[in-house]
């Protein structure tokens, strides 16, 4: 036995296997996932696993490595999120999302940090040694809403598109703020004195980190699109480029201390339309499928590891600090959403209702990002307290809020997602209105979103498409594409239902030509064959033969006085076949 | 800049990117791959890369790590080979393949080993310190034909199916022999004395390694099939199980010192039919696509690394030893093929022609497996000589034989692969003959391949299918499945050609209902829209509208005295639309 040799890949494979089997297990009982979100169940599995490992080894189970999380588990989820991001609602609400993500997160960080510092001043709590900077550092890591947790819960409750994009977009874009504030406070903690220059540098850094991420992402996205122009002869490696370039964008951004999450989202959103046009249909299915698969497995692993890492002796328990952390997280988020929405609603016609505000505030789940960040903290004597507080906040938000949000959505009758896809008519209307509004904005001199969208579209069709698309001279309208997609889907349905009768396929005609000459011999002479073949199968084959045989004869006299085309009964076909067979020697 | 942090994934991604871009590069020039096999070009790229690294760093470039090769690069290729293995020709020729793989490889090992030992006795060559055991050890690693190299070359020359499966099957199954002999001689080298017990243990081990591999593989394959029974509700992780279980089978076999290659092939071939029946069509596309993609990238990386690893100071040059190695490799293989084929042809009606024999002998390419094995050798004073000899043999076989085999195949007019897929009629005939022959074998009491195949099929349909398939009560005949596939393909073609006219799809009817009410307004009022939309696109949309609009009206009076259905000209449709539009206010 040589376990050493294969240990690394073997254990990785086993963990992924465990995650996948856990997922299957939950879905075997249909009732369970409808009550408890999958993320809670997975954390629960992780807790049990952690308990078993702790019990067997008598030492803390291994903690989720922050490097593994940030380098291998997080990118697939964010890539999936970015690639399947509904771009229209995202860009329509980009202002609001940015407000929540930037101002809201800063508000939460400082709110939580300062009020926890206030708690630390109470002598009875024995927390006087936690400095303001440490509290702010803790605030910076606990304030950020987690995209993985939000996605896991919001995917199951089907709230309306706007509400979903507001919470989800915020959770993705606040990464830039979190990165900056976390690194800023961490370096402040290690500095002897803090100059005001450092603070300003921090503010400047914020723009660099966010916009730099976007720039890196778009660069790689465009390169990816450009690369797929040349893959016509080797379709099989097309999907690879989507993954490679996105991952490179994430790694490059991380390397330069930019926001990797922002970079990979920009990359995915930027490349999507060009890549889709360049690669083959099967490649695209593979890309979509594998992205979903990968993110789903990553997501599962993250929650299981969260559970496993919770067990152990990494925690220092201090009731007041932990309880107040949970309370402040809730209060400051609620206040932040209320205040920001007040301003947002002032400038918008399509306001955010108070029900929606409640769900936005309540949906502020914390997850694995906080957890990894708290483990990345430099060692200081209260780190274990921070770990304990972070774990409690995560478990509280995922379990209590995650499990109650669905009943609350039902109770409040929050507007749900519309079930049906928009019709072609609606799509034409939307497009028409877009152009109209772009024209109005152009005339009135207001540089609004429609103006910019129009300019972008112009730039896209004038320059980008020519460089990035293989067949740029025939850009198909999305309506035509939709129509083709529907027709294709319908054709498959028809073929599967066996109703593609009016246009018999040439290959099948050809084959049935072979068939009818061999048919009688084959079926009648070989008793053994009939024994082995299932009667259903035989019936199936005969039906196919019957249909095609009949049709071959029918192709001659296509015009028939007494029957409408396609109206003849299958019984009649069968009868004719029977007659034919009796006649044959 | 924080390169340390992202180094490992970043460099892996860059290597894969290089491999993919190299692949694209070759395919841009269509003429190049038709003359030089891709493997040669890739080794060449690797040589250049290695030269650059050597020149810049002034030290040997990193050598391909044997662990990376055996644990990460080889499994995808073998999995792909096993999954897409044409099972019928493989099992029809299994006896011949095993003879070549087992007896042939042993013949080559001892032939090359002993004759090189003979060369070592010549005093003028200064090789007397290379013992017989070391020569045999070297023979065991250099004798085995490499599946990766064979696949890379034989995929491009399209020889007939039997010839292909003979060479390729041998290259896969000789792994068990290679593993046993290599490990045996390596342990003999370290032993002070060799007892005859050890030799017999070695012979026994051979069966354990081979059959153990098959057993491990089949176990994991059946488990995989069983697992996919339960994935109906989470289609998205279905493809994962195919990869996870195959990889686990490989790792488990390696862990127990069994043949990983044999295990993964058994796993892939065992699970294929059940998994295919259980998983969805899209999952299956993803599985196939990703397997091809992965193996193609692995393959590319292996050849590039081979080139890179060649450059450097790992070599000890000794003209006679290296030249005689190449010569003996060629001679012993040719002799082995001739002798073995003589016996094979005695017992078969369908003999192997002398042309085929030549190609089998000539197609014995060596590749990365030898290369990794030679680096895995324990350190002794002549290791660098062995590395040099192995490198030369690999480069000679891949470059000289790989590049000349295509012209030789043309010159000898070796029977090629038939281009067209078998028709349904042929398939029925083949199946009929199978049953007939199974019956004849049953009656005559001869337990031949048909007898066993029939028994296996019975066992499969009686027990395995019920356990492993989700919908085991409706097993579809392969003919029905083929027919459905053809119909589906045809339907898509029809839909794409826009000829699915006789059966307008319901969704498209619905939409065109919307469309016709909006159409006039949209097209006429919005000048801007018309400017932005390409005239082609507009034409496209109008054509779709025209067709559907016409059809809606036509669904009422389906019977028309003067026209056959589907005969009306598109011009007429357009005219009618025009009239309609003029009439509308």
- Gross morphology of chain A is globular
* Low-confidence segments of chain A: 501-533, 548-571
Question: Distance between termini of chain A?
Answer: 68 Å
**Regarding CATH, which class of the domain at 64-412 in chain A?**
Mainly Alpha
Order of helices and strands of chain A: HHHHHHHHHHHHHHHHHHHHHHHH
What average pLDDT do the residues of chain A reach?
Answer: 80
CATH topology of the domain at 64-412 in chain A: Na+/H+ antiporter like fold
Helix content of chain A: over 70%
Of all protein chain pairs, which has the greatest interface, and how many residues does each chain bring to it?
A-B, 114 and 113 residues
Structural class of chain A comes to mainly alpha
**Structure annotation, total helices of chain A:** 24
Total number of β-strand segments of chain A? Answer: 0
């Amino acid at each position: 036995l040589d376990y050493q040799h294969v240990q690394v890949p073997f254990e990785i494979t086993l963990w992924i296997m465990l995650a996948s089997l856990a997922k299957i297990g939950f879905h075997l009982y249909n009732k369970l996932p409808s009550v408890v979100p999958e993320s809670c169940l997975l954390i629960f599995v992780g807790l049990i696993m952690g308990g078993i490992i702790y019990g067997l080894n008598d030492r803390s189970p291994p903690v989720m490595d922050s490097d593994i999380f940030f380098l291998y588990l997080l990118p697939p989820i964010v890539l999936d999120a970015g690639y399947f991001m509904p771009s229209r609602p995202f860009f329509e609400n980009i202002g609001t999302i940015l407000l929540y993500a930037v101002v809201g997160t800063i508000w939460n960080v400082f709110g939580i940090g300062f009020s926890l510092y206030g708690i630390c001043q109470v002598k009875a709590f024995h927390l006087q040694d936690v400095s303001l900077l440490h509290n702010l550092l803790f605030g910076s890591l606990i304030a950020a809403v987690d995209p993985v947790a939000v996605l896991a819960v919001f995917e199951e409750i089907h709230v309306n598109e706007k509400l979903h994009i507001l919470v989800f977009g915020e959770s993705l874009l606040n990464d830039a703020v979190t990165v900056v504030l976390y690194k800023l406070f961490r370096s402040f903690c290690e500095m002897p004195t803090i100059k005001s220059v450092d603070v300003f540098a921090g503010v400047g850094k914020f723009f660099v980190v966010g916009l730099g991420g976007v720039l890196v992402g778009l660069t790689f996205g465009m390169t990816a699109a450009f690369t797929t122009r040349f893959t016509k002869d080797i379709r099989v490696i097309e999907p690879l480029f989507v993954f490679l370039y996105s991952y490179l964008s994430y790694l490059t951004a991380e390397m330069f201390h930019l926001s990797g999450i922002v970079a990979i989202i920009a990359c995915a959103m930027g490349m999507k339309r060009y890549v889709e046009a360049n690669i083959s249909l099967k490649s695209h299915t593979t890309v979509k499928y594998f992205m979903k698969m990968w993110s789903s497995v990553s997501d599962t692993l993250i929650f299981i590891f969260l559970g496993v890492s919770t067990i152990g002796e990494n925690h220092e328990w201090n009731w007041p600090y932990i309880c107040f952390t949970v309370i402040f997280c809730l209060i400051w988020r609620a206040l932040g959403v209320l205040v920001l929405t007040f301003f947002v609603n002032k400038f918008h016609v399509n306001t955010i209702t108070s029900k929606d505000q409640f769900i936005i505030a309540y949906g502020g789940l914390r997850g694995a990002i906080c957890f990894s960040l708290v483990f990345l903290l430099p060692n200081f004597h209260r780190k274990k307290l921070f770990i304990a507080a972070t774990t409690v906040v995560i478990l509280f938000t995922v379990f209590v809020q995650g499990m109650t949000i669905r009943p609350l959505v039902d109770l409040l009758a929050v507007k749900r997602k519309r079930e049906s896809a928009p019709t072609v008519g609606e799509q034409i209307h939307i497009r028409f209105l877009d152009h109209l509004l772009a024209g109005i904005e152009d005339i009135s001199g207001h540089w609004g979103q429609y103006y910019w969208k129009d300019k972008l579209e112009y730039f896209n069709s004038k320059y980008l498409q020519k460089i990035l698309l293989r067949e740029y001279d025939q850009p198909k309208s999305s309506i035509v594409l939709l129509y083709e997609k529907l027709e294709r889907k319908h054709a498959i349905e028809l073929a599967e239902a066996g109703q593609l009768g009016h246009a018999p396929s040439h290959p099948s005609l050809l084959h049935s030509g072979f068939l009818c000459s061999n048919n009688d011999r084959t079926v009648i002479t070989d008793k053994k064959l009939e024994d082995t073949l299932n009667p259903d199968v035989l019936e199936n084959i005969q039906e196919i033969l019957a249909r095609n045989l009949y049709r071959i004869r029918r192709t001659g006299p296509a015009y028939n006085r007494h029957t409408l085309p396609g109206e003849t009964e299958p019984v009649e076909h069968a009868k004719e076949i029977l007659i034919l067979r009796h006649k044959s020697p």
